Amino acid sequence: MTTVVIVIHLMLAAALIGVILLQKSEGGGLGMGGGGMSGFMSGRSTANLLTRTTAILAAGFFLTSMALAYLAGIRQPATDTLLMQPPRSQSQPQPAPSPAAPDHPAPVQPAAPAAPLAK
């Protein structure tokens, strides 16, 4: 679905660029219509056609932009990757397991008598 919308979006963008470049500007530009009334359409009807075409293509471009933003939002949860903590197993080594405590306490050994000090 996303791929289809991207392809349509790119086609609209290319067509919009072409239609905008065809329009006659005050400086002449790439516009057509410098040949008087002998052309296919008069200057006024060409301007109206190009203006309508530009408006339609621009509306389609905005709609596909919003559709792509919506599709991107529902596909992945919004998370900030800079603040996201990596899993614990990768970031910190696991401590060595401590020996298990015995089930019963060890018997207490009586202390050996201290040896007399020699003078």
Overview of this protein structure:
The chain has 119 residues and is mostly helical. The protein has a domain at 2-32 and 45-75. Helices cover 49% and strands 0% of the residues. It has helices spanning 2-22, 43-75, 88-91. Helix 1 (2-22) packs antiparallel against helix 2 (43-75). It is rod-shaped, with a radius of gyration of 40 Å. The model has no long low-confidence stretch (mean pLDDT 76).
Rounded mean pLDDT score: 76
Shape: rod-shaped
Written as H for each helix and E for each strand, in order along the chain, the element string is HHH
Gap between N and C termini, in Å? 99 Å
What integer value in Å does the Rg equal?
40 Å
Strand content: under 5%
| Main beta-sheet strand count, sense and barrel state | none
Low-confidence stretches: none
Please report the number of helical segments.
3
Find the structural class using helix and strand composition. Answer: mainly alpha
> Helix proportion of residues, in percent?
40-55%
Number of strand segments: 0
Supply database-style keywords:
single chain, 119 residues, mainly alpha, 0% strand, rod-shaped
